[in-house]
């Protein structure tokens, strides 16, 4: 498919797209001349029942809401395509993975889990990463998360887990938060949650952007090749921009400043033509190696460390088109783990088995019956030909007398398929007693939680400790806090002591067992991609008298590298420059906040710097960005804005020549070197070594 060519899904949707450029009509196509006044008996009289237009209008409105998803209610989606790097026919018969010539249209929906549909984006939570591949052999859904493990091992516990994390049932508080008693009560009583809780308390749970987030299929799935040979497979999505996160304090402030932060970021990037991309990778395990690990491949609370089985990159996902209508597409898209194509099959992971039941079941309720696959966003590009008839909102007009298999009156159609493209379930021998037990091989709940902890960078560990303290510190019951601390003691003694000390409960006296000392560096965000500044937002603070040359010196190369640069002043409009010109202001800093930007530049110009330094709003902007470890650049007189209470190391640097101190670039003028250094810092995401505890922002 050429880059400018429209894919099969896009073309298919043309038949469903409707523009509002025609005269107003009723639902039955009758032109309407007045939609502001209902039909009355007398100008001041009662409304008449025969006003079919008013009744229809109000009735439709009354029925506009459908049940939101019971989990993952809050989300944002986009279309794009997937292209393999190479053919994978040695391991899978899946046609969409057969080679780089096969480009498959996709729809991806990202989501948070616990909050309701109108909740804020930047809450501490797992993110959903669900991909619908519209393949030529039918739809394949990879319904994953941004964390590679899960809370529980058996799907029968899913309602318990979700009930515990959702707002508490008596007062429906708190919304989209995990910092409350019922979740941690559940966690304390279910040690199998411990590995996932480590990830959830890490920075993974507050992604900077959906574009900077990994995705995982979580379960071990099975590839099956044309000869019927199976290979275990774990799926990984790796963002080309690297995996980067917010700071917790910042994430909380964004919830108020821009609750749509992640959704907007995705939408804006695609509108700007900066298409988000991920590489799909697979970890492959031969059937005969199923039992060679010290955990069970069927246990979704475990990763296969990348150091043991490397991730093989197999193709690239690009999102390049925003939906036309949120409800029609993003809300009505229906994912289902059992939507598989030939070459991809399940394993006996008890969590996956439950999901294969749950997703279809939930769509039947949410989308009002059995014909939801006919909704445009869900409709396959592969032809659909079957004997399913009737049901609510049947949109297809099936012709012919027969709707049963094994017919002569319909010429035997639709006939059974043959050859390639037919789905054959993998032949697996299963036998055993009918029992309600958990396999012994699922019993180790702590080793990989410890592995995760051991693998983190120092700053990641600090964030993790702070997160546990924040969350448990919101639990009213000390007993709940204490029980979680006791479980943490099995992960790492030092960790449990530090958490306990922050939340007023007894630290465990002795370690529950020695830390095994093993690590998997790949799980640290330190091992991600750094460098690209595409779509990163830079605020440039300006006032009358600003040094225009300094503004341009930063703006031009940053925009050239793909960053979004906005000029902020006390009010909208324009400011005078020291050179006698004017520059346009993009926004008033009173309407935004530093938390919505990745970095700040304060250009020189004595008058501009004086005005900004005298404005609490501007000073707070810089201080807060500093507090959140963001790169800051100050040029010439702009360094005045760095004056106390920023630490001495930074302010004293301002007096010298061009230099970088604690992630702050200060220079007498905006030379190429300082701009390049600032761009490097921007691409490095955050300057974690900067101590910020004493910064009052
Ligand atoms: Fe889901 N999950 N889930 N889940 N899940 C749903 O399906 C469920 C699990 C995930 O953007 C629901 O259509 C059970 C793991 C995503 O539309 C529901 C179990 C993973 C999405 C459901 C799990 C996920 C969902 C709610 C335990 C990561 C959003 C609405 C056995 C691998 C998809 C819906 C979208 C949504 C059930 C566990 C990811 C109720 C029973 C593990 C990304 O069917």
UniProtKB/TrEMBL annotation:
Cofactor(s) the record lists: heme
Presence of keyword Metal-binding: yes
Gene Ontology molecular functions: catalase activity; heme binding; metal ion binding
Record GO biological process: hydrogen peroxide catabolic process; response to oxidative stress
Covalent cross-link site, 3'-histidyl-3-tyrosine (His-Tyr): 336-359
Listed InterPro entries: Catalase (IPR018028), Catalase_AS (IPR024708), Catalase_clade2 (IPR024712), Catalase_clade2_helical (IPR043156), Catalase_core (IPR011614), Catalase_haem_BS (IPR002226), Catalase_immune_responsive (IPR010582), Catalase_large_C (IPR041399)
Annotated region (Disordered), positions in chain: 1-43
Composition-biased stretches (Low complexity): 25-36
Keywords: Heme, Hydrogen peroxide, Iron, Metal-binding, Oxidoreductase, Peroxidase
Record field: catalytic activity: 2 H2O2 = O2 + 2 H2O
EC numbers on record: 1.11.1.6
Active site: residue positions: 72, 145
Protein family according to the UniProt entry: Belongs to the catalase family. HPII subfamily.
Function according to Swiss-Prot or TrEMBL: Decomposes hydrogen peroxide into water and oxygen; serves to protect cells from the toxic effects of hydrogen peroxide.
Protein's recorded name: Catalase
